[in-house]
Every structure is written in C-alpha cells, then in structure tokens.
Amino acid sequence: MREICQVSDDHIDELLRLYRQTWWAAKRRRDEVVAMLAGTDLVVGYLDDSNQLVAFARVVTDGMYFAVILDVIVSQEFRGTGLGERLMNGVLRRPELTRVKSLELVCQPDLVAFYERFGFSTQVGASLLMRRTTDPLLTQAQPR
C-alpha cells in the first residue's frame, strides 16, 4: 500500500467507485467530486499494489481551532484488514492538524467503537448536531 495526499485526476473515477459503496454518497457525480476536492484542505488515501485507490478520507480545517474529518471510506474488499486504522492514523499524523484544538467527525452508531480507539468521544457536552441540507439521504436513518 502506498499513501497519497492528493487525488489525481487518474484516481477520481476510483474515488467515485468508493463512494458508490456507501449509502450516503453513492450518487455523487464526477463534477461535484472535483469541486469538493478543490475545497478540501487535506486528503489521505491509499493505493493498492495495482495503483488503485482503495481507501480515502478528507479534512476541512482552519488549522488552529477546528477540523472535521469527512468521507472515511475503505473499499469493501479491504475492510477488516486494518486499512481503516492505517487510514485514520494517516489523517491524525498530518502536521497540518497538530495545532488543531478540536478534531471532529460524524459517524453511524456502529462505528463509534472504531473511532473511540483514536481518542474520539461521544461526550460533546450539550452540543447537538444540526443540519441544513438538500440531500434527503442525510435526514433518514441509515439503510440496513
């Protein structure tokens, strides 16, 4: 596996393939993903031995107070191999995040234990997640 810190144009279709493996991003379009990547501060991905993108995560941050980890995805054929842990460690060791005071993410309940291993907690005081969205998938329970 080889770690990358940007998604080249050659790998955008592979990123779309990863998104298609999710319930929340399966309908993302190439033009939208290109625009999304342009507005993303940090990217961590992994290429397999055949140079295919098989894991991806991105971060939006101000570099000091706040960062949000988004779109953490491991290809179905690599789940359970430790690649998710490697991906999260790749994100967390990025020097651009060392001064950030609050590193946050949103996850489904079945992934809480995974993220707790990296120091994340559901203890967020009285804070609530609020959302304004045009994507109806983000207002429904995750399909099983």
Quick overview:
It is built from four helices and five strands; from the N terminus they run βααβββαβα. With 144 residues, the protein is of the alpha+beta class. The longest helix has 10 residues, at 83-92.
Main β-sheet: number of strands, strand sense, barrel status?
A: 5 strands, mixed
Order of neighbouring strands in the sheet with most strands? 1-2-3-4-5
Q: What would you report as the Rg, rounded to the nearest angstrom?
A: 15 Å
List the secondary-structure elements in sequence, H or E.
EHHEEEHEH
Strand % is: 15-25%
Helix content: 10-25%
Span from first to last CA? 30 Å
The parts where pLDDT drops under 50 for at least 5 residues are none
Indicate the structural class: alpha+beta
* Global shape: globular
Query: For the residues shown, what is the average pLDDT?
Result: 92
- Count of individual helical segments: 4
Number of strands: 5
Explain what this protein looks like in three dimensions.
The protein has helices at 12-20, 30-38, 83-92, 112-116, and strands at 2-4, 42-47, 53-61, 66-74, 102-105. The protein is globular, with a radius of gyration of 15 Å. The longest helix is centred in the middle third of the chain and has 10 residues, at 83-92. A hairpin with a 5-residue loop joins strand 2 (42-47) and strand 3 (53-61). The protein has 144 residues and is an alpha+beta fold. It is built from four helices and five strands. The chain starts with a strand and ends in a 28-residue tail after the last helix. The mean pLDDT is 92. The protein has a five-stranded mixed β-sheet.
